[in-house]
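Project standup — Tuesday

K.O.: blocked on the structure for the chain from last sprint. Re-posting the sequence here as requested.
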Amino acid sequence: MMKTGFFDYLAFALQFAPGGPEEKAIREKLARLGIEAGKKFAFKDLSPEQQEQVVAGVKEGEAKIVQYLESGQKNINGWKVGSLFGDSAFYNGDWLKRAAAAKAGIYGNDAAEAVYPMTKTLANGEPLDGSKHNYTLTFAPGQLPPVNAFWSVTMYDGKSQLLIKNPINRYLINSPMLPQMKKNEDSSLTLYIQKDSPGADKEANWLPAPNDTIYLVMRLYWPKMEAPSILPAGEGTWKPPGIVKVQ
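H.V.: unblocked you, prediction finished:
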């Protein structure tokens, strides 16, 4: 609905979301354009010049959101790490950050509850593509994500950001699965990120990938405060390891 009738969707949603003081100015701007809570947006009644500017504004807004997700967070070994989620006081009228948070993973927790490193690339910026390469993600000995609750690494399609249908019905690897997984001789843990099985002996550590571009999200629930820690998000002593392309 947001793709095909964004402003009607927005107007519908606004009636259930009373505006705070920080929203007064932006809601007045929307109202001048004819976008008001619970009302249909009469796009056809705008002049051709206004219609052109509305369409251009939507495209510009989407581009800004994508750019924010690419450069508005700390890049650590190819993972984007930051604090995108919180309450209205956290955003304080920063609509770009709020929109970026919704696009990256709507309904996320604040950093004290969970941190969400995200990546679509290798550390050098090369896009992850399961149709072309196999990859690994290795946590060094004693360097699993530092959490009080649990952690996970979830696989998504790089374009749709939806989960990937796969022969073993596995969509993530998480800490509760550790007893069934195989560690390396030095006690490090390697995840195999690829579209085809890495073999029966490694399948416990296999995170099935799409036959296309890849989007990975690591989730650290109730991250530890003491070192090593990912907190403050993007500045902590624990760094997510980079994805490695198998040669």
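K.O.: great, moving the ticket to review. DSSP finds five helices and eleven strands in the chain. The chain has a mean pLDDT of 94.
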